[in-house]
Structure formats: C-alpha cells, structure tokens
Specification:
Length: 365
C-alpha cells in the first residue's frame, strides 16, 4: 500500500477562521508607511500615504509610524521630522552604508527585520518602481498577503484592512482583506490619495534599528548612478492642468490639437491607452489604471469614452471637463462638465479663445 501524502506544514501565522487569529498575531499593532527616499528626495506618495495612514491608525486606535532607510544620517533626520509634520507618531530608521543606493536584497532584509521585531499590523508602500519591487519581496519573505495598486484603503467592521483595487482588466473594483496573516500589506499609486495638511513643528519619537548586513553579503553591486535626463519630461501626476485625448480624435495629426491647448494653458498633455498602442504618444503620458494617476485642478478629456480603466486614473481631479460626440459616453457619468461636441472642431476654438484671453491679461498686467 502506498503511503498517504503528507500534508504540507501550516504556514506561520495561518488562522483557521476569520475570527480565530493566532495569539502571536494579536501582538501585531500599529500602521506603518515605508518612506521612499532616494538621493535626498522623498517621493510625494510617501506623504500621501502618511495622510491616509493617519486615518487608518485613528480608526484602529493605534500609532502611525514611518520607516526610513538609507545611509545619510542628516538626510534621514530631516525626513523623519517631515514625517512627524505629516502625521507620524514615530519613525523607525535604519542607517547603514549598504543602504546608500536602493538594492532589493539589502532593503528587504532591513524591512523584514523591522517587521519581525516591532510587528506592525498594516504596512503601506507607494506603487512606484521601487515600492512595487520592495513590497513583493517583503511580502514573500514574511509569507503574508499583498494587495497591489490600490485606489482606496479603509478599516472594515472587524478591524481588518480593506484594500480596494481594479480587477478583471479594470472593468471592476474589488475589495481584498488579508484576514489570516500579518502584516496586512498594500501598495497605493501616486496621486490616488490626497496630500495631508502639514503641521509645522509637530514632533515624535525616532527608533534607530541596526541592519547587521555587510557589503560582501549582497550579490548586487552599484557601479555608478546615472540620473535619468528624461525623468522630468512628463510630470502628469503632479500637474495642475492636464489635457488629454482619446480615439475620438481619430488620427495622430488631430492629437496635436490636445498638445496645442496644453501649450496655451501651460498644462501637461496625455491620453488613453489606445493612443499609446497606436503609437500616437509615448507610454509616459498614458493616463489610467495602467498609466499615470492624476489629481489636477482641471482635467480636459477630448474624445475619451471614459472606461473604468481611465476613470480610476482621473476621478480625483477637482474639475473634469469632458468633450465627446456620444451623449451616452461613460465619461459623462463622472465628469463635472460634459460637452456633447466633436473635439476636433471644438479644441481649436477653445485654444484660440484661451490664447486671446491670456494675451489680453498679459497686456493689462
């Protein structure tokens, strides 16, 4: 007779049911935000996450902490003070020469050590290139769940993190709960959340944590850092005004009408995914679920139908003006101002009107 197959050992932290969280996991408390700081610059998404983390921590009745890793003590101290002003109660710091440049192995070691030592119940990261790389490694190492590219975070009635993200190609939104593991991890894209109000002079506690990792322990080596000369070319995520076009413009030549209006307004320009697929514009200007998420004061969408993939990326704009020939286009469901018209004919008229208006104002000034 053949032996019955052995059952795989239960993973650490596994609970039998939703309400039977193991005793050792009940010790996990507090909300953490990983502060993305490279070459002395903090990515704004880190402060956006602190604002949202403050709400989650208040709902749970726990503390909000930032986590800063790097090599420069002065920079880390300055960033820690910024974290306090954006809502953190305390900041965990790991300062070590091997953290001078981001490398997955070193940063994953630092984060997993911190989590195992101080046991946060919620761990949030920005869905940036760095954040996505680090989050996946940390979640895998800790054998916990990770919800990526979230558009909304909340605490449910039983105290779990409810992380909402697009699914099925962006056609639906789903809310995911990590019920039986800790920490509960999520990444959130830049500009999905609003920037919190900064409270100057607010201070908290700094906890220094040793890394205990030698350079020889790390396989990856940084030979040289070369700044991306094109990194400031498209600043869609943080533009105050964005003009975008879709397939309703019908040709790459007509997409120039979007660029013309953006130039007059001093705005950034972009478009929907099909325009990238057709080669009408570069991928760094794509707006939507698989592109950039934006929160401008004014967003003008010309010839964009407004599918859920695009809506996820723009619905936080203060004012959305939609131009489309189809009165039943989905974009009119969430636009603040809807104009049923042919964008190819309307855009030149709008551009000329703004050009004249701005010229008059300059002369008057």
């Amino acid at each position: 007779m053949s032996e019955a197959p052995k059952q795989a050992p239960a993973q650490a932290g596994r609970a039998n049911t939703k309400k039977e969280l193991p005793e050792h996991l009940k010790a996990y408390k507090h909300v953490w935000v990983v502060i993305e700081c490279e070459h002395g610059a903090v990515h704004p998404v880190s402060f956006e996450l602190l604002g949202e983390g403050r709400k989650l921590a208040d709902k749970r009745g726990v503390q909000l902490a930032g986590v800063i890793m790097g090599n420069d003590k002065d920079v880390i101290a300055a960033v820690a003070n910024e974290c306090f002003e954006y809502g953190a109660n305390l900041v965990y710091t790991v300062t070590d020469p091997v953290l001078n440049h981001y490398r997955n192995e070193a940063y994953t070691k630092a984060m997993t050590d911190l989590v195992k030592t101080y046991q946060p119940e919620i761990l949030l990261l920005g869905a940036t290139t760095l954040g996505r790389d680090l989050a996946g490694s940390v979640a895998t190492t800790l054998l916990t769940g990770l919800t990526a590219d979230c558009t909304e975070l909340a605490i449910d009635d039983e105290g779990s993190l409810a992380a909402t993200r697009p699914t099925f190609g962006g056609s639906l939104l789903c809310t995911i709960l990590t019920l039986n593991y800790r920490p509960q991890m999520a990444t959130v894209r830049p500009r999905v959340l609003s920037m919190p109000t900064r409270q100057s002079g607010r201070r908290g506690c700094i906890v220094e944590h040793p890394l205990g990792l030698l350079e020889n322990d790390i396989v990856t080596k940084v030979l040289q850092f070369v700044a991306d000369r094109e990194s400031n070319k498209a600043q869609l995520a943080y533009a105050d005004i964005v003009v975008a076009g879709g397939l309703g413009l019908r040709s790459a030549e007509n997409f120039q009408l979007v660029k013309a209006l953006a130039e007059v307004l001093g705005a950034e320009y972009g478009g929907s995914r099909p325009l990238v697929q057709k080669g009408w514009m570069t991928s760094d200007r794509q707006i939507g679920q698989t592109g950039k998420t934006i929160r401008p004061k004014l967003y003008i969408a010309a010839g964009i139908s407004g599918a859920i993939q695009h809506r996820v990326g723009v619905e936080s704009a203060d004012m959305i003006v939609a131009i489309n020939t189809d009165p039943n286009a989905p974009i009119f469901d969430f636009a603040h101002i809807g104009i049923v018209a042919d964008a190819i004919r309307l855009l030149p008229a709008i551009t000329e009107a703004f050009r004249k208006h701005l010229s008059v104002n300059r002369l008057a000034g």
